[in-house]
Amino acid sequence: MARLDPHSYVDSDQRPPRHLRLDLAVDFDTRRLTGEAVLVLAEGHRGPLDLDTKGLSLHDARTETGAPVPFVLEPEEAVLGRRLRLMAPAGAREVRLRYETSPQAPGLQWLTPAQTAGGQEPFLFSQCQPIHARTLAPVPDSARVRLTYEAAITVPEALTAVMSAGPAGARPGPRPYTRTFLFAMPQPIPSYLLALAVGRLETRDLSSRSRVWAEPETIEAAAHEFAGTEDLIGKAEGLFGPYEWERYDMLVLPPSFPYGGMENPRMTFLTPTLLAGDRSLVDVVVHELAHSWTGNLVTNATMDHFWLNEGFTVWAERRILEALHGEDVAALSWAIGEAALRSSLERFGVDSPLTRLRTDLAGLDPDDAFSSIPYEKGSRLVALLERAVGRLRWDGFMRDYVRRFRFTSITTEEFLAFLDEKLPGAGAAVSVSRWLYEPGIPDNAPTFRSTSLGSLTALAEGWPQGRRPSPAVAARWTPSELLVYLQHLPRQLPSESCRWLDETLRLNRRGNYEILVEWLTIAGGSDYEPAFARLREVLAGVGRMKYLRPLYLALGRHPRTRALGREVYREAAPRYHSLSRRVAASLIEKYEDAS
Ligand code: BES
Ligand code: ZN
Fold it and tell me: Does the C-beta of 261 come closer than 6 Å to ligand 1?
């Protein structure tokens, strides 16, 4: 037995299945997916086959001819779940597993109608990255393995199902008042890119290869916000080569979605907090789209190489932004990322092994190790390499890299070998091993300048000495400029300062969540009561972990805000996604009890 992924039971001595067929009914009453997963075995498969499962109840396993397949479901292990070992008889071509998911499956969130924009129908969505696909279906749940898939998803008649796949029609369901949606995913994907959502959904075309899905209540806003998507695809193709997934569709989820975006192929999932009305948050779409090359085509082999997905994608995102809006806009995005990088370094400590790019997460839950390090340290390494060899050569390297590794999964070391082959000496010139294998940020990190950046940070850092922006000037700041300014203000301010900021910059009323949350982090940390109502509203309504973390952390600073934090948490926790709940609970637990 040889396990090549610390977070999977996949055994490298076995030939993994290459195709998956799902036939599932979505039952909102019991909060279960029930049905069948068919694993099409590799040509000439022999011997045992180990799969990952978590929380699944297995009822039956048979071959395509109906012959029983003996199986063992091993005892539960922390993080991993249960190994399912199938002993298919020689010559079997398929194993058909009848099973159901658990109502607590971490990969699924079941929403009541009250948690949706429409308030009439329930909603279901999945989030499989990093290792939750095994809570939806028995699969080889390692990014080293790729599968094509087909699915038949039966839902209540009023609802629509979407997946990370091409639509293949719909038909009346097997029971009254149900409908079955069919899907086919012809491009092989790692299991973490399996995705399903079910709800009352509408759609608008954005271009011939892109459309957005959302609840009817938000569809117009979504179509407006993401109207520029085709331009983004065009820019990205110019940089990285052809878009290989035929369609680029998006789904706007209810506000409990725990991330900003998830790059599910052919169906990016997005938080509704992006709907600012002014297209100021489309950088998240740019990011998820960029994963169509870095991540979905060239995939990290395991979560220890996660920086290959996110570092390259953040770098790509900022190159696309630069191509669209120029260098100054890109530099602001690098500056905004730097603030996130600093707070992750603070959270772990600069000597923590979790600040390495190549990690060793064996025995750890990858959700607990999640941070801005792979994103911001990773993207800085890519930018450094780009500067070292020059943009022209680097862009050529990137296209070669994508072409060479498309539809495969690679390790940090495979990337390094390819770098050495194509750009000999470049790695050594930037001390690439220090970047990859040592904690903290090396001192040759690239810096990014723009016309406004220096003056914005100086202005903010001069706050304690009485420096204030002129209200007329501040009114002309772009959302990114305002965000950079807020990020550089002291984290705790006297009440008069908060009032001045709130009134001059109208912060409590902001609809851009990046700005709003940055402000509320300061206001909460400053015990500024006029912001409490808005804090309550955001914490109770939005499940995006990127926002919950700084807000609950800031509320820990004062007795009164701790009480607020605890109270909102108690009320909101049942509506949070299990991941968001874990993050919020761990922060609340750390509150000092003297209140
Ligand atoms: N793939 C990630 C989200 C993710 C990572 C989910 C790890 C589960 C485990 C996605 O592409 C992402 O990075 N989203 C960011 C967007 C941002 C960097 C623009 C987010 O959600 O904030
Ligand atoms: Zn990403």
Answer: yes
Active site residue: 192, 259, 375, 513, which one? 375
Pocket residue to mutate for ligand 1, from 287, 321, 580, most atoms within 8 A of Cβ: 287
- Token readout for 418 is 């390819």
How far, in Å, CA of 102 to CA of 506, rounded?
45
Contact of 179 with 154, CB cutoff 8 Å:
yes
Q: What are residue 135's DSSP bridge partners? A: none
CA 96 remoteness from chain centre: 31
Instruction: State residue 526 phi and psi, 5-degree precision.
Output: -100, 5
Q: How far is CA 36 from the centre of its chain?
A: 27
Strand order across the 49-53 sheet: 49-53, 82-86, 71-73
Would you call 271 helix, strand, or coil by DSSP?
coil
Give the other-Cβ count within 10 Å of 302's Cβ.
23
Mean pLDDT of 514-543: 98
The pLDDT of residue 2 is 87
Is the CB of residue 488 less than 8 Å from the CB of residue 453? no
Q: Tell me the CA–centroid distance for residue 284 and ligand 2, in Å.
A: 9
DSSP letters, 454-473, are HHHHHHHHTGGGT----HHH
**Pocket flag, ligand 1, residue 259 (CB < 6 Å):** yes
- Overall average pLDDT of the 298-323 stretch: 98
- Whether this model's pTM surpasses 0.85: yes
Residues 531/508, Cβ–Cβ less than 8 Å: yes
Give the tokens for residue 549: 């973390």
Whole-angstrom Cα distance, residue 309 to residue 291? Answer: 7
